[in-house]
Design goal:
Helix content: 40-55%
Strand order of the largest sheet: 2-7-1-8-9
Largest sheet: 5 strands, parallel
Radius of gyration: 18 Å
Bound molecules: adenosine-5'-diphosphate, guanosine-5'-monophosphate
CATH class of one domain: Alpha Beta
Mean pLDDT: 92
Strand content: 15-25%
Order of helices and strands: HEHEEEHEEHEHHEHHEH
Number of helices: 9
CATH topology of one domain: Rossmann fold
Low-confidence stretches: none
Shape: globular
Distance between the termini: 27 Å
């Protein structure tokens, strides 16, 4: 047990640390669904939510910045982190490694922040499976919330990917194949939000976060 967890557990036992549950909000969606759009809005509208910056071995795209969008690392550096046990979860997605640093998550939850993870279905599954091994009072177990954002249809998804105009036709075809696989795992998530009308999807997402952060005595 590390120091930060010990102090959280002690304070949580005193039951006067926070009057809400700091959430570990896992959001997954097929590429092009609108997850980034929804997550950005959530982060803009709620100062109490921070974004979990993942490590990745993929190269920066466009205006992406190291330490803001991702921590861009070399593959050997990523593997050293794996060996040290730094990651809460990690996976290979579209041929690159991606991982969530456990320290980022614990620091956020211990300071009373909700932390938002934009991760794929494999990573979400790893965290979910690991929950049973954690103590009941562990902030990760207490705060875990998983949401799958789905497109209204595969046809709409393709239109959004084409409309975003960021990817070549080959990449879009590959993303569509991946999307069908990812959609098969939507039921593993406690909540599913369909991103048809953006405002409605955002309202639903906000409601879920609000409801799950309330403490029921
Ligand atoms: P993701 O992060 O899931 O890959 P983005 O947030 O980049 O997806 O959204 C993909 C495209 O779809 C963007 O051009 C975005 O503006 C658009 N989009 C997102 N949500 C909606 C929506 N509800 N209706 C129509 N277009 C949307
Ligand atoms: P992109 O390279 O387009 O930013 O992200 C590709 C995919 O990797 C997305 O589905 C995104 O959710 C996922 N991803 C980003 N960070 C992580 C992470 O830390 N862990 C896992 N498992 N997936 C991640």
């Amino acid at each position: 047990m590390n120091d930060s967890y010990e102090s959280f557990a002690e304070k949580a036992q005193e039951k006067k640390l926070f009057d809400y549950v700091p959430l570990l909000i896992v959001i997954s969606a097929p590429s092009g669904t609108g997850k980034t759009t929804l997550c950005d809005r959530l982060l803009q509208e709620d100062d109490n939510i921070i974004y979990s910056i993942s490590c990745t071995t993929r190269k920066p795209r466009g205006a992406e910045e190291d330490g803001v969008d991702y921590f861009f690392v070399a593959e050997d550096q990523f593997k050293e982190s794996v060996a040290r046990g730094d990651f809460l979860e990690y996976a290979v997605v579209h041929g690159n490694y991606y991982g969530t640093l456990a320290s980022t998550i614990r620091q956020a939850l211990n300071s009373g922040k909700h932390i938002l993870l934009d991760i794929d279905v494999q990573g979400a599954g790893q965290i979910r499976e690991g929950l049973a091994l954690l103590d009941d009072s562990d902030p990760i177990r207490q705060g875990f919330l998983d949401i799958f954002v789905a497109p209204p249809s595969l046809e709409v998804l393709r239109n959004r990917l084409e409309g975003r105009a960021e990817d070549s036709a080959d990449v879009i075809d590959q993303r569509m194949i991946n999307a069908e696989q990812e959609m098969l795992r939507a039921d593993e998530y406690e909540y599913q939000v369909v991103n048809d009308d953006l405002d409605q999807a955002f309202q639903r997402l906000s409601q879920v976060v609000k409801k799950e952060s309330e403490i029921y005595e």
